[in-house]
């Protein structure tokens, strides 16, 4: 089950693995692949390595390149969706009737749409995630799982993991494989986008504000991006919604001030799920930010463009063509990455999707409009949930998606307090995109790096932050 990756005889060499475990963990610590602990998430006194794989996992080079190559198209697609109110209205109409969270975001969107827009600078930092689907005839293809347009994480830590795996390979005497691990620096690329937008905002004293959670376990991932900004003499502050509510205000030109400092950019690393808004004050802070002259990363329409319902709408025939009327090749390149996606709206199409899922639940994933991992429904539970809301509009809070079946590989998942064992694993490849637009002018549009996350195949769902997946690197094969 090595699929061209690290051979089984190495994976099963017990003495070597025991030796590598300690070296791997020390090397992660030395390279800053860090997380704060569960018990003290807001203190730097005790930290640990972020969970990661002992070895890099194999990824076919051509599919990896395909994912990188399509990223600037996804950047433009998200940006175009965000500028199309009638599409957003239409696509999300059924969802916002039943999903309170999306409805709440949509309300803010409608509200700011009514006001004159003085800020023409748009900054997008996203991550498009893929799995490699293996069909029954053995053919492997790149399939998009989702695109994250808000708070896409691990660009910082994944900038440091290549050196960790390279060191492990050296110690394991696998020199030939070193060149199969690429350099990766999303931290620099994300910072480049932030720096460009800050420059265009045009006020040297204005700060970049990271909008953060109250629990800051993953702060080192942020710090890598933050420190890239400081290196360019761009000041950064970190604030939570309630702090923005208490100390924030807009001046007569809608400039945003927080604690007396003008904010050029609000970079959301929070605000993507309902419990990030602990009170009405959080929502008021979000609204104040959206109404302000600060560059929002993302702005509310770009946030909405990343919902699963939009992803499903894009997969309908003819929709991509609306966004790229003169670019059939762009359309083809994007569509090539789409898995089967099905509406659950009331009507014939929705009824057909329900029937498909009830007949073969193992072939599908049922997805609500949520982020952060652990929200999807699989297997027998799909039946249960769908039967409970079969002909009700409740079902329109979800979309249905073909289940991607990647080829499993063996690896070791290193995680605090977990004894080492060889696991059967599945990987998910993320690609980071950055773009900056001023008015109608795209001033920056780049693919800025990648992320590989790997989890035990026992888990259907869940990311690194959710404690399921761990950081990895593609070993290009
Ligand atoms: P979230 O926004 O919560 O991260 P995702 O769409 O990424 O939502 O789903 C979470 C996880 O569920 C993914 O990381 C992946 O492991 C799994 N998953 C999602 N969609 C599929 C799919 N179509 N096939 C297989 N696994 C999936
Ligand atoms: Mg997501
Ligand atoms: Mg995801």
From TrEMBL:
Please state every residue range assigned to the domain named Glutathione synthase substrate-binding: 206-305
Q: Which cofactor does it need?
A: Mg(2+)
Q: GO CC terms for this protein?
A: cytosol
Q: How and how many cofactors are bound, per the record note?
A: Binds 1 Mg(2+) ion per subunit.
Its UniProt pathway annotation is: Sulfur metabolism; glutathione biosynthesis; glutathione from L-cysteine and L-glutamate: step 2/2
| Subunit structure as annotated in this protein's UniProt entry | Homodimer.
Pfam families, alphabetized: GSH_synth_ATP, GSH_synthase
Q: What class of enzyme is it?
A: ligase
Know the name of this protein? Glutathione synthetase
PANTHER family named among the record's database cross-references: GLUTATHIONE SYNTHETASE
Gene3D superfamilies per the UniProt record, alphabetical: 3.30.1490.50, 3.30.1490.80, ATP-grasp fold, B domain, Glutathione synthase, substrate-binding domain superfamily, eukaryotic, Glutathione Synthetase, Chain A, domain 3
Residues that hold substrate according to the record: 127, 150-153, 216-218, 269-272, 453, 464-465
Which residues bind ATP per the record? Answer: 146, 308, 367-376, 378, 401-404, 428, 455, 461
Residues annotated as binding Mg(2+) are 146, 148, 371
| UniProt cross-references to InterPro entries, sorted A to Z | Glutathione_synthase (IPR005615), Glutathione_synthase_a-hlx (IPR014042), Glutathione_synthase_C_euk (IPR014709), Glutathione_synthase_N_euk (IPR014049), GSH-S_sub-bd_sf (IPR037013), GSH_synth_subst-bd (IPR004887), PreATP-grasp_dom_sf (IPR016185)
Q: Which family does it belong to?
A: Belongs to the eukaryotic GSH synthase family.
Report which superkingdom the organism of origin falls in: Eukaryota
Instruction: Provide the E.C. number(s) assigned to this enzyme.
Output: 6.3.2.3
Single GO molecular-function term? glutathione synthase activity
What does the UniProt keyword field contain? Answer: ATP-binding, Glutathione biosynthesis, Ligase, Magnesium, Metal-binding, Nucleotide-binding
